[in-house]
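Support request, please re-run this one:
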Amino acid sequence: MITIQKKLPGIILCVVLALPAWFLGHLFPLIGAPVFAILLGMLLGNFHNNRNQTTDGITFTSKYILQTAVVLLGFGLNLTQVFKVGTQSLPIIISTIAVSLVVAFLLQKWLKLDSNIAILVGVGSSICGGSAIAATAPVIKAKDEEVAKSISVIFLFNILAALIFPTLGDLLHLSNQGFALFAGTAVNDTSSVTATATAWDAVHGSNTLDGVTIVKLTRTLAIIPITLGLSFYKAYQDSKNGRAK
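Re-run finished. Output below.
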């Protein structure tokens, strides 16, 4: 009971933000409700002083309710479609993840960035945004500050992608299937992927959300081998440093 009472203020706050975002999303379908929700959350964050009271509820909503929503979305997917789209997109997903990680490594060397931040941003931008960062951070023993910086970078580009990609897709003359593959492999977090697909569907009267979700979930699976690889690499580095001492 105490736990529910602690979470309730944050959950209510999320609902209060979600309702106008949903309404604005219907008025401006090109932008979409998820983007409005993110923007309203950012705006409120500048004036919301008593964050301790709502932190538990916001964390619960952003984690468990979002995960439940994704599961419910999965109920509407056809297994044949999942297999077809997943296998078609797999080569592109592997290629984009590999290129993204290599670019992150090269930029880290060139710009002399902190290695942990470079890894977190590289993993976050190539796989699944904040979820990948959260999974990778304990593996590489990243500090809270490094995690916060990395998530901020990913979040910024998520917002830009949700706003720009539908228009960019039109400029590139992408088909609905092409846009689903484009958005599913290029946008990071699930919420932003959903926002991008929703904006596209609202303008084109299509249903790319299913395809985008499949591509995104297929891409998310890469978090398993990546984190395993990083754990082995970190263990090797630690043992190497131990021998050097």
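The mean pLDDT is 79. The radius of gyration is 19 Å.
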